[in-house]
Amino acid sequence: MNRLVIGLGFRDQATAQSIGDVLADVATKAARPDVATVLAVVEDKATHPGLLAAAQANHLSIKTVAAEALRAADARVATRSERVLRQRGVGSVCEAAALAIAGGDARLVVTRQVSADRNATAAAALSEEIAP
């Protein structure tokens, strides 16, 4: 089964509106209505009120990513932010989170998008399982 994973990265002050807007933007750009969609976030952001509200509003489940898995996916990210690299050890939190949850066969279908207020980012990875 194919799966679309939307990875999210956001600042503590991000609102549900900010997260929801960038989530909707990436979902539209990914244009994969025929596949299951989940959200991916780093473990320490999983209980953020804005995230929980945006996930509930979009009827999406949240998968958490450990810091080690995030760093392991870094070699496959397309975006390189020096600030994020210093803070999290990856070039893009949202891209790495999406790829980590989508799996080793996944590919980015939408690179990092930034919310209008610059408090949230999102990217999408598609895992395509090949039938035997």
Task: Give structural attributes.
132 residues; 5 strands
Can you characterise this structure?
With 132 residues, the protein is α/β, with parallel strands linked by helices. It has one domain (3-127): Nucleotidyltransferase, domain 5, CATH 3.30.420.180. It has five helices and five strands. It has a five-stranded mixed beta sheet with strand order 3-2-1-5-4. A hairpin with a 5-residue loop joins β4 (107-114) and β5. α1 (16-30) packs across α2 (49-57) and α3 crosses α5 (93-102). The longest helix is centred in the N-terminal third of the chain and has 15 residues, at 16-30. It is globular, with a radius of gyration of 13 Å. It starts with a strand and ends in a 5-residue tail after the last strand. The mean pLDDT is 90.
Low-confidence stretches: none
> How much helix is in the residues?
25-40%
Order of helices and strands: EHEHEHHHEE
Note the beta-strand portion.
Answer: 25-35%
Shape: globular
Rg of Cα set: 13 Å
Overall pLDDT score: 90
Layout of secondary structure:
Elements: E1 3-10, H1 16-30, E2 36-42, H2 49-57, E3 62-65, H3 67-73, H4 82-88, H5 93-102, E4 107-114, E5 120-127
Parallel strand pairs: 1-2, 2-3
Antiparallel strand pairs: 1-5, 4-5
Provide a quick synopsis of the model.
This protein is an alpha/beta fold and 132 residues long. It has one domain (3-127): Nucleotidyltransferase, domain 5 (2-Layer Sandwich). Helices cover 36% and strands 27% of the residues.
